[in-house]
Structure formats: structure tokens, C-alpha cells
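// run 5 | inverse folding | seed 20
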């Protein structure tokens, strides 16, 4: 294989992100013809078919997607080397982030607002996705950072080519109709998870329609209480979960720091605790890219700032970040 120019790799990477040669040409301030020519040269250099027809446009072939993923890593390493030689250069470019709605609303948007003033050459593009969806986009090179979540009782397994760091964690409780609480004894109300679950073994349960982690937690704690929960309803909207609880249609997990609506009681869960954990996930070495390194650094600062507000969002640290250091009713 011949030596590949990074300029051509950048064109391929931008095509994987933007989806059309015209958009790439506009971004790189060149012509569509030049983009097409450079991609053709890149294909010859690699001895592979990188593009295929898709209606009136083109899309990447499997080989094209694989090379684009490599391009992301190579270009990040080049950018890191340049930043090391020129540490005063300001982070610039388009940074693509996919994450779950709570992290976007509570953590990411305030950071983006601040960075828009301090780093006007940096543009952060945000998409709301559940963890599996966000990690798939990261694997295809379509985003630079995935913000995912799991639970302390259902931890995620990340691929070895990914770099991960905990951003924050927050406790969850069992949401039930308030009218059902008065019949519970003090031991049940003490917070022991299995005892609390056992008190509702004959109720229907509410899971998440877009992620299995919630159901993994429900089944894990229910097994400690020696029963199998009947998960009859599923929703990724916290408002809808509360509606279902209020209607007497089931019980389900709800965040402890979310004010409960009238008619709903949040029963604490402990021994074992139920903690939702937010993670920042990047491809290995990609975190060295200056714009991403800056955002990861700010997420690190945000993590410690949350520790000062334990009732807004409980945080805990499981190690430092690397190097530089849905809507309002959505379920997570």
C-alpha cells in the first residue's frame, strides 16, 4: 500500500460524517469534483473499493467505513502531535457527541454554552441516543464521544479499543403509588432493596423500552427476594413511567433526585444500592484530539462540581479522565 496523505483521509472521514460529497466540499472549501478525485486516488492507494452508489449519491462500503474509522484515529494522533508542538493553538473544528438525555441536559449543554463563548471556533453537534445506539455510532466513526449509562448492578462491558471514564453517578429508587405505602411495615421502608421488592412481588413492573439495563436491575434484585418480576409495561419516558405508576398499572425505577409527583412515593434502595452511572467513551487515542481533550477536561471538572450538590446529582470518582486532565421527560 502506498503512503496515504492525511488530506485524503480527512475527506473520507468527513464523508462518513456528513453523507454527501457536496457537504464535504462545502466544509473543506473545495469543489465536489476535487472531493471525488481525491477519494478515487485514496481507493487506488489502498487497493479497495471505498464507495458505492446510493440513489443519486454515494455511501461508504464496509471497507470504506473501516478505513474511515482508522482515519479518525490517525488524524487524532496527527492533531495531538501538532498540538504538542503548538500548545497555544485553540481547539477548533466539529466535535460530534451522542448521549442520553439527562447527561445532555444536565451536563453537556451548560458546557457547550460556556465553550461557545470561550472557543468560538469549536462546534459541538449533539444527538440523543441510548447507550447501545451511541456506541454503535462510535464504532462506525460517526461520532467522537459517546456519553452512556449503566447501573452499578448491571455494569457495561466496553470493548478494548475504547477509552472510558466515569462522569458521575446518581441513586435510583422504586416508584410506587403513595396509597400502597401505608400498609408497609418499618422494615420494608428501611431501604433494603430485596425486602422492598418483595413487598411488590405481586405487582406489575415497568421496564425501559430502549435499554435492557433497567430490567437487568429489576431481575437481579427480585432474584434476591426469590421471585421473578412481571415486566408488563415499558417506556423510556419518566413522565410516562410516573403516569403508569399513578394509574396503578405497575411499579418501576425512578431517579431519587427527581421530585416525585403527588401520589408517588420513592422508596429508597440499598444493600444493594441502585446507582445509575454516566460514562464518557471514546476510541483509543481519539481523546488526544484537542477539541475532544478539552471537552473531556470540562466533563472532569463538571464531575467534581456535582459533588458539591449531592441532592441535585450525586457524583463519585472512579479514576481520572485521560490525558488533559431526550427531551425533558426522557427516561435517562
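// decoded
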Amino acid at each position: 500500500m502506498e503512503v496515504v496523505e492525511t488530506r485524503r483521509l480527512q475527506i473520507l472521514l468527513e464523508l462518513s460524517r456528513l453523507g454527501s460529497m457536496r457537504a464535504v466540499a462545502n466544509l473543506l472549501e473545495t469543489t465536489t469534483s476535487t472531493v471525488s478525485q481525491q477519494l478515487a486516488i485514496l481507493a487506488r492507494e489502498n487497493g479497495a473499493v471505498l464507495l458505492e452508489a446510493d440513489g443519486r449519491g454515494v455511501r461508504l462500503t464496509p471497507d470504506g467505513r473501516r478505513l474511515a474509522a482508522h482515519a479518525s484515529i490517525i488524524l487524532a494522533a496527527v492533531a495531538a502531535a501538532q498540538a504538542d508542538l503548538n500548545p497555544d493553538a485553540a481547539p477548533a473544528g466539529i466535535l460530534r457527541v451522542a448521549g442520553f438525555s439527562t447527561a445532555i441536559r444536565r451536563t453537556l449543554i451548560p458546557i457547550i454554552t460556556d465553550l461557545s463563548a470561550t472557543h468560538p471556533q469549536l462546534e459541538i453537534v449533539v444527538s440523543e441516543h441510548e447507550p447501545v445506539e451511541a456506541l454503535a455510532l462510535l464504532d462506525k466513526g460517526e461520532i467522537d464521544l459517546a456519553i452512556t449509562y449503566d447501573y452499578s448492578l448491571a455494569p457495561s462491558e466496553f470493548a478494548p479499543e475504547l477509552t472510558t471514564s466515569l462522569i458521575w453517578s446518581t441513586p435510583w429508587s422504586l416508584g410506587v403509588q403513595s396509597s400502597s405505602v401505608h400498609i408497609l411495615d418499618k422494615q420494608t421502608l428501611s431501604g433494603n432493596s430485596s425486602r422492598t421488592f418483595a413487598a411488590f412481588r405481586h405487582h406489575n413492573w415497568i421496564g425501559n423500552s430502549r435499554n435492557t439495563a433497567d430490567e437487568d436491575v429489576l431481575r437481579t434484585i427480585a432474584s434476591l427476594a426469590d421471585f421473578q418480576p412481571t415486566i408488563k409495561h415499558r417506556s423510556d419516558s419518566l413522565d410516562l413511567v410516573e403516569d403508569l405508576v399513578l394509574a396503578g398499572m405497575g411499579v418501576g425505577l425512578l431517579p431519587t433526585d427527581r421530585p416525585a409527583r403527588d401520589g408517588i412515593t420513592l422508596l429508597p434502595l440499598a444493600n444493594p444500592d441502585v446507582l445509575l452511572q454516566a460514562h464518557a467513551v471514546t476510541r483509543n487515542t481519539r481523546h488526544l484530539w484537542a477539541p475532544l481533550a478539552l471537552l473531556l477536561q470540562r466533563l472532569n471538572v463538571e464531575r467534581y462540581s456535582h459533588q458539591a450538590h449531592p441532592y441535585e446529582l450525586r457524583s463519585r470518582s472512579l479514576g481520572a479522565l485521560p490525558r488533559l486532565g431526550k427531551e425533558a421527560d426522557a427516561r435517562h
